[in-house]
Amino acid sequence: MRRRIATLAFLMLLLFAFLAGKLAWDQVINGRKLAQAAVRMRSQTAELKEYPRGVILDRNGIPLTDTTYDYALYAIPGVIKTHYAAGGDLKAALIRVESLLMPHLNDDTLQEIKHSLSRLAVENDLLVRIASHLNDEELKALEGLDIKGVIVAPVIKRYRDDGFMAHILGYVGPTGSSGLSGIEKLYDHILAHSASEWELVTTLDARNTAIEGLMFKLRQVQGNTRARVVLTIDRRIQEVVENAMNRHVDQGAAVVMDIDTRQVLAMASRPSFNPYDDIGLIIASDPYSTLTNRALSRYHPGSLFKILIAAAALEEGVISPDDYFECDGAYDFSPEVAIPCLKKEGHGRIDLTTAFTRSCNPSFIAIGEALGRNNVMKYVERFHLTDETLQGYVADSDYSYVLIEGGPAALGNACVGQKGVMLTPLQLTSMIATIADQGLWKAPSLVRYCVDQQGRTETFPDQPKQRVISPQSSALVRQLMEKVITEGSGQSAAVPEVPVAGKTGTSQTGILDEETTPPREILNAWFGGYFPADDPRFAIVVLVEDGESGSQNAAPVFRDIVQGMLQYY
């Protein structure tokens, strides 16, 4: 009995050993089969981004590009060939697919598909986007359409269609391979040919057939450093400014600057443009200079220049807040030459505060004469008023200038911001920030840093501030700017929630509107200011071309921007 039990146990051991060995061998065989299958399988990918470019971000890391999506048509040539080719002829298969799509797509989309499919006849192992920007009618028509190897999927658009930040961001060529204006052009060496963070993937077997369950999967690309340019812009504030401009301004500009850092938080120009429009056509037939960034273009600043004149005169001690001036409606240089006041009948005898808050031309011409041409130019230089520096950015615009010719009339014209003075809205914002920052100047900036495709970071060194005028002089000018709001020409800029300070301006252009009878001169309306008045943090300048006056056209835009910003600051 014991011998039988031992024999049976030995046989059972042999059986278990055999089964275990077979299982291990099967696993080896299956592993080899899986490995061989894996070798035969191939993954094909297509970028979900419209253009292979790095992203542009705001100061808080919020994307300014690649923020919206559209729908596109993607194709797998290998699958198309498998299902539609007679005798393995890919070209015939592509023509067949084109014929299936034809009833559902418009002519422009079909032209794009025809071009893409002709390329696929040569490069037949790609997963590619064959058409972009499908409209609602096309999407509806393609719903439920089962064409093997073709799928509708999202594509991340580079720009918004509403022209958001179009002048700063710029635009690219048709393939996205090169930037042609704005940040896209200046940082093309950083942004070009950057891999997407997300891609569309399909897996094919050895017969170029998409494997069920593995077709058109979304995958995040690992190890992508994502080349990027980080601006000083705050996207929330930019939205506030653009919305205010859309409501009030057909042609003009607005700039918002952080007074402490001098970083530009928002910059907008009108009219704007859609980067997807035919740029060549805009250039060829555009009477409004749509592509011009007006925030960086030169204009006569009008009475905003009186801020500099007041600051220089107070600093030099040629006037005091207690001084009085006479205004009878014009400043006469000779029987033939005079510069009128905005108040035709004149202000009479007025003090400095009234002269500033009522923007009296004769009073400021008198101040300019007391100051003298050399002193005016000295403070133009001290304030870096014609400095074109915008850290991280180079503008394609005409240079600003202050050129005062000889003679009292030339100096008088300059003191009221007319002939001889041409400045940009950005430069005027910088001037106001200097006044608000107790007389300290610092160059404005637009770019914080950038990261290339190898992950290397380039930063811009912070520059120290320079004293331009004394804290006492700047405090006196700030008091004048506060009274413009409470009792002067800038009352339409007042905001109930927070005290603000500023200055209105209306400048002549010398251009006549021939469509009116009689022809009228086109004027530009300005408002420049800061808030809170008791603890300045933000400087803002608004320009409205072809306006009536600064108080009527520009000051309300300033008010809207301030009120919009209060929800964030």
Report on this model:
This protein folds into two domains: 43-231, Penicillin-binding protein 2a (Domain 2); 235-565, Beta-lactamase. The N and C termini lie far apart (95 Å). α3 (90-101) packs antiparallel against α4 (107-120) and α9 packs antiparallel against α18. By secondary structure, the chain is α+β, with helices and mostly antiparallel strands. 36% of the residues lie in helices and 21% in strands. The strands form eight sheets. It has a five-stranded antiparallel β-sheet, sandwiched between helices. A four-stranded mixed β-sheet has the order 2-8-18-19, with no helix packed on it.
Question: Main traits of this protein?
Answer:
single chain, 569 residues, alpha+beta, Penicillin-binding protein 2a (Domain 2), Beta-lactamase, 2 domains, five-stranded antiparallel beta sheet, four-stranded mixed beta sheet, 23 strands
Give me the secondary-structure topology:
Blueprint: H1 2-40, E1 42-47, E2 55-57, E3 68-75, H2 77-84, H3 90-101, H4 107-120, E4 128-131, H5 136-142, E5 150-157, H6 166-169, H7 182-186, H8 188-191, E6 198-204, E7 217-220, E8 228-231, H9 235-248, E9 252-258, E10 264-270, H10 279-284, H11 306-316, E11 324-327, E12 330-332, E13 338-340, E14 348-351, H12 352-357, H13 361-371, H14 373-382, E15 401-402, H15 408-415, E16 421-422, H16 425-436, E17 440-441, E18 447-451, E19 457-459, E20 466-467, H17 471-487, E21 501-513, E22 520-531, E23 538-545, H18 550-565
Report strand %: 15-25%
Would you count the extended β strands for me? 23
Average predicted confidence as pLDDT = 86
Q: What name does CATH use for the topology of the largest domain?
A: Beta-lactamase
End-to-end distance = 95 Å
Query: For this structure, what is the CATH homologous superfamily of the largest domain?
Result: DD-peptidase/beta-lactamase superfamily
Measured on Cα atoms, how large is the radius of gyration?
34 Å
Number of discrete domains:
2
Can you give the helix content as a percent range?
A: 25-40%
Which class of the largest domain in CATH terms? Answer: Alpha Beta
Overall 3D geometry?
elongated
CATH architecture descriptor name of the largest domain = 3-Layer(aba) Sandwich
Number of helices: 18
Strand order in space, largest sheet? 10-9-23-22-21
Task: Give the uncertain stretches in residue-range form.
Answer: 1-40
